[in-house]
Amino acid sequence: MTQLHISTHIRSLLAAAAIATGMALSPAVAADLTVARSVDADSLDAQKASTTQSLQITNLIFDTLLTMDKDGSVHPGLASAWSMSDDGKSYAFTIRDGVTCHDGSTFDAAAAKASLDRALDPATLNPNLSAWGPITGSSVDGKVLKVTLSEPYGPFASFLTSIQAAFLCPSSFATKEFKPVGTGPFKFVSWTRNDSIELAANPDYKNVNPLVENPGKPHLDKLTFKVIPEAVARMAALRSGEADLVEPSLEEATDLKSDSKFKVYAAEFSGQQMLAAFTWKIKPLDNPEIRKAIGMAMNRDAYANIAFEGLVNVANCPVAPNLFATDESLCAGWGVSYDPEAAKAIMEKAGYTADKPLKIKLSVHKLPGWDQMHQIMQQDLAAIHVQAEIETREVAAFFDHMKGENERTDGLPVVWTMGMSGVDPDYLTFLWKRPGFVNMGINAQLDGMLDEQRKLSGDARAAKIHDIEKYLMENAYAVPLLSPGWGWLMASGANVEGFKMGFMVSLLFNDVTVTR
């Protein structure tokens, strides 16, 4: 017999014996887990990877200098301690003792510097280069990696916790042929492109991530990511046991969450936020009262519970929950709440009635859940005399289109929806500092506040971020809708325990056990 047949035969004998003696046979704890995803990684070089699907894998192989807890606070990672100079222009990171790369080499301050230098080298073509901030140099002093910046950069510590900020062992890039060698919980084994990626547990792993409970080696010995593009086929794989964890569609997740044989996971700490925005340079959307009325008409509870089947939550802030300085109760006081009658009164006072509605475009992009949300939104707006024509484009074409729409100062006004994600509220700068994301930047006053928060830290930075959010909310430049992940759902059998989704949709398998 083969080894598989022998073990199967022995288990059958044990089962028969258990039945004969009236004993129940406990499920076996499996040493492997298979994940089915719709697409493959584009690279396993964390400093060149450009997709979330790639970074989900590299985050298992490589560690980060710092980590983040569920409240957005920063904790040790590869660095056991860190400090910032009084002027905010330099940082010192003490690298933990005893960290070993997957190939047995030591990860120390010199290794950290080598990885940092490569991440910042223009020749690397790092797609996340700008997020590292204004770094001007680095040096090593014993166990300490020192980093200097041209100016203070408040988001720096948060960024160093993200899946975009992996630190590689130097042996990864010692030769022309890149080899994914890290210090993370799993080691690279093999990659058959557009088919599967196989990882093995790092037996020497010591965990410090506050989102993980297991202090050492993952419970799983083997982790396999299979590419199954068709959603129906992924679900069949889950139901048959061919896969233990899969990416479901929104519709499939809805069916699974009411079935006790399965579990559904939403990206609670994704940092993802959905917003409604305005072409505010075009009348009458240049009037903040009209923008507020439109926001007051939006039934966000219905969007969360009907369009997204209760898998997301209503959000009050322009920044996602769980990030630094985010305070949902403060934002609720600054923003609008659902009040269609008051919204209708504002519109009627401005001269808009059932016979003479405000005509707008509701410009959107096509994604599951969003489609039904926009249909409900269209009805919400009709109730306050706003006649919205839904205009749908594919994602890439949509954002290109909005660049032009946000520059216009006349013509048909547009209300549009979008999403953003990150590990720090600094993505407000990306969105709103002129010219802003797809030209949605606002004015010099907001630009100044956004620049200032980058130069602050701690409570002072939190206060400035609150000022920015208050400004955006009280002037109704944006209406926060929902959080968290709108397209990042996972589903497993009920026999999977301990799986979590971390920040920026990272996948955490350190605590996972599977029984079969």
From TrEMBL:
- Secretion signal span: 1-30
The compartments listed are: Periplasm
Question: Which keywords has UniProt assigned to this entry?
Answer: Signal, Transport
- Annotated membrane-spanning segments are none
Q: Where is the Solute-binding protein family domain?
A: 74-432
Any Pfam family? SBP_bac_5
Q: Mainly localized where?
A: periplasm
Give the Gene3D superfamilies listed for this entry: Dipeptide-binding Protein, Domain 1, Dipeptide-binding Protein, Domain 3, Periplasmic binding protein-like II
Query: What protein family does this chain belong to?
Result: Belongs to the bacterial solute-binding protein 5 family.
Could you tell me what this protein is called?
ABC transporter
* Higher taxonomy: Bacteria, Pseudomonadati, Pseudomonadota, Alphaproteobacteria, Hyphomicrobiales
